[in-house]
UniProtKB/TrEMBL annotation:
Organism listed in the record: Alistipes shahii
One GO-annotated biological process of the protein: carbohydrate metabolic process
Tree of life domain: Bacteria
Pfam family, one: Glyco_hydro_28
Name the record gives this protein: Uncharacterized protein
Keywords on record: Glycosidase, Hydrolase, Signal
First and last residue of the signal peptide: 1-22
An MF annotation (GO) of this entry: polygalacturonase activity
Family: Belongs to the glycosyl hydrolase 28 family.
Length: 769
């Protein structure tokens, strides 16, 4: 009996033990890992592991193990679990190592941000999912840098990785910066060869601009590699720096990218110039940095601001705002530099705010740009003839950049003799020293026959010029500015003319005026007015003016006039040929050649023959007329605000009216005018490409004859106003349109889409060829 009782007690104990064990097993989960073959590192089971369980209020359980075999069953307590494996304990830390705290206090954080970190693999899932296989996937990304044929004298390659994370929040499995977004700096030497780095994922999936600097023999060669969408969790990025062509002046940077465990494929390869950087003018301008490649150096170029006027949008508001009191003018920029242009010249431009698109005009020059770094483009100016350009970002023509290069002046040494920054001797006014020289409003430079004004490179002269006589020269490579002169007006601007060549002595015997090489900005009225002067040479000058009726070049009576290689931006007419009532004596204009000019008129006309043409009836001299004018290889970059009621304003035009505003009489004849090989380059939709017109006059009819437009291209992306022939009762004879086109469509007849004539009764000899 006693033996039976002992047996029953033993069986009862076994039953209760079995029941207790069954209850304990239900409260635990035994982790089961399932690796993804070749995708998973071979030794991951030997890495340190960590498991954290959470409910919504606290960490319910945690454990750390030196390897996978050391992991205990997971307590069923909570709603989600994070499992980690990391290849090393170096340079990482867990912020909290006890359970029961707020779940957001549990963070895996990098200790030294710039030092190496281990690989980290993770599974973040619900607690119920832990009963199935645990499949860890990579949290860290892999970056492999390879140096190919790195030169022995390379001290370092430094790479900055922007927008990096340094913390993993274990409750959510999300990486976020613990103390703000950081940039990680990598540094390699020539002996490193290949280096592999592990990284926490980036803070965003935006483009990743990796700025790098190569140091060789004390010289630094910076560059930027742009990787779209950056690098994400588990991705592998390989970047090769290939120096095998370093002796030829360049090196190559290429990258490959793939999901972790896949073979990376080549995505991009960029060639960088082996060039140093001169940063003399870096960030001196708030809008642009400009560099020019000279040998192996990117030489920084000074960038200047200039006001301009947005006529299409603001004309009514800024009319009569002579001194810009309303602050409605915009700010464009221009950059000048010297180069001999023995071949194409490489230019780098950094716009100091982000942009999406860029365009370099004239568009017919087909200058292609290359994005080489964040907000930075490069392109080549192909030749001396094709060097002056407008660089326009995101279609903005009122904050654009003009590049105005020049060749060094071979005559400079005879003026810049080092004796002084400013002098007058031997008939020469010299201003130099790279300084600003300011003249009083009532103290202009007065040039007389045989004298020269020289404005040296890098120098700005504030003031105005009066020229009276023959054989007068204005030259140099500097800038003449009217910014410090009074800008006043009533119906029209009445400030001083900036360069006034006024040979109104009644004899009409002055000749030989020359101006070349300088840039002129901010005129208070007309800029360059030339009265009664023959044999005029205007070559390679630039203008930027914002004031209303601020004409660029006004030729008022003269013969044998040459205007070449100029880039002009004005509110009013850029180039106009006139016979004015206030000329003494009034005389015709004859034999004018305008070649290779770029014109940009905000409101009026780009190049116009006229409008004032003298008076054949009522004035005492009864003379005038404009004849034998050729305009060739010119580009109209902008024209806008053409009138609905008449054809006065146009990119290229012929216009006849009497010798002065509201003057009676009949204008002199306009004859033998040729526009050839010109381009209307995508002007504003309110602009008019071409116009031939004459005002009606009660005293008689004027004659406009032998007008030819040959090989004129009209390029228009958004449409523009129609071109027109408007005789207004005057006599128009022999008007020829030869091989002209609108967006590639040949203009072969009058067409309401391209070209109209208001009254054919007054036109004879209209031809299309």
């Amino acid at each position: 009996m006693k033996k039976m009782l002992v047996t029953l007690a033993f069986l009862n104990t076994l039953f209760f033990m079995s029941t207790a064990c069954s209850q304990d097993d239900s409260n635990y989960i035994q982790p089961k890992f399932e690796d993804l073959g070749a995708y998973t590192p071979d030794d991951i089971s030997n890495w340190p592991h960590a498991i954290f369980s959470f409910n919504d209020w606290a960490c319910t359980d945690m454990q750390m193990a030196d390897n996978r075999l050391g992991i205990d069953p997971i307590v069923r307590n909570g709603s989600r679990t994070t499992v980690l494996a990391y290849s090393s304990k170096e340079n990482i830390r867990f912020t909290t190592l006890r359970s029961g705290e707020n779940p957001y206090d549990y963070i895996l954080q990098i200790k030294d941000f710039d030092a190496d970190i281990p690989q980290v693999w993770i599974q973040c899932s619900s607690l119920d999912q832990m009963a199935g296989p645990i499949t860890l996937t990579p949290l860290t990304s892999t970056l492999k840098i390879r140096l190919i044929e790195a030169p022995d004298n390379m001290e370092s390659l430094q790479i900055v990785l922007p927008g990096m994370n340094d913390a993993l929040y274990l409750f959510s499995g999300v990486t976020e910066p613990a103390d703000g977004i950081k940039n990680k700096t990598l540094r390699l030497t020539a002996s490193d060869g290949d280096r592999t780095y592990y990284l926490f994922p980036m803070c965003s999936d935006r483009s990743w601009n990796l700025d790098f600097t190569i140091s060789i023999d004390g010289s630094q060669y910076p560059g930027t590699l742009t990787i779209p969408h950056g690098i994400g969790a588990g991705e592998a990025l390989e970047v090769d720096f290939d120096f095998s062509k370093m002796d030829s002046g360049s090196y190559n940077v290429s990258y490959r990218k793939a999901e972790y465990g896949s073979k990376p494929a080549l995505l991009a390869s960029n060639t960088f110039e082996n060039a140093r950087y001169d940063e003399t003018f870096k960030n001196k301008n708030p809008y642009y940095n400009v560099y020019v490649l000279e040998g192996s150096t990117w030489k920084s170029v000074e960038v200047h601001n200039a006001l301009c006027s947005n006529a299409p949008r603001l004309h009514e508001q800024i009319w009569n705002d002579w001194n810009n009191a309303k602050k409605l003018r915009d700010t464009m920029c221009y950059a000048q530099f010297l180069n001999d242009f023995a071949g194409p010249v490489r230019v780098r431009i950094e716009k100091r705010v982000p942009f999406s698109q860029v365009r370099v005009r004239p568009s017919t020059w087909d200058i292609a740009t290359e994005l080489v770094a964040a907000n930075t483009i490069e392109f080549s100016l192909p030749s001396w003839e094709h060097r002056k350009v407008s660089v326009e970002f995101d279609g903005d023509r009122y904050h654009n950049l003009f590049l105005l290069p020049n060749r060094p002046d071979p005559a400079r040494e005879q003026y810049a003799d080092g004796s002084a920054d400013r002098y007058f001797k031997n008939g020469v006014y010299y201003f130099g020293g790279g300084k600003e020289h300011i003249l009083a409003e009532n103290a202009p430079i007065k040039l007389t026959s045989g004298q020269t004004l020289y404005i040296d490179e890098g120098t700005t002269l504030y003031g105005r010029i009066e020229a009276r006589g023959s054989n007068i020269t204005i030259t140099g490579r500097g800038t003449l500015s009217g910014a410090k002169l009074q800008h006043v007006g009533n119906q029209y601007a009445s400030g001083n003319i900036l360069i006034d060549v006024l040979n109104n002595n009644g004899s009409n015997n002055c000749s030989g005026f020359k101006i070349n090489g300088i840039t002129i900005v901010d005129t208070p009225s007309w800029c360059l007015r030339i009265f009664n002067t023959d044999d005029v040479t205007i070559d390679n000058i630039n203008m930027i003016h914002w004031i209303l009726n601020g004409d660029g070049i006004d030729i008022c009576t003269g013969k044998r006039i040459s205007i070449t290689d100029c880039m002009l931006r004005t509110y009013d007419d850029c180039i106009t040929l006139k016979v004015r009532h206030n000329a003494k004596p009034i005389g015709p204009i004859d034999d004018v050649k305008i070649e290779r000019c770029q014109v940009w008129t905000e409101l009026a006309r780009g190049i116009v023959v006229g409008p004032e043409c003298g008076d054949m009836t009522s004035l005492s001299y009864k003379t005038g007329g404009i004849s034998n004018v050729s305009v060739s290889d010119c580009v109209v970059l902008e024209a806008s605000r053409a009138n609905d009621s008449n054809f006065e304003n146009a990119g290229l035009g012929v216009m006849a009216e009497s010798a002065g505003s509201n003057a009676p009489g009949v204008p002199g004849p306009i004859d033998n005018i040729l526009f050839e090989d010109c381009v209307i380059d995508d002007i504003h939709s309110s602009g008019r490409p071409l116009s031939i017109m004459a005002r009606a006059h009660r005293d008689g009819k004027c004659t406009v004859s032998n007008i030819t437009f040959r090989n004129v291209r009209i390029i228009s992306q958004n449409g523009c106003r129609i071109s027109g022939i408007d005789p207004q009762g005057n006599i128009f004879r022999t008007l020829t349109f030869e091989n002209c086109d609108y967006n590639g469509l040949k203009i072969s007849s009058l067409d309401p889409s391209f070209l109209i004539c208001t009254n054919m009764d007054n036109v004879t000899g209209l031809k299309f060829q």
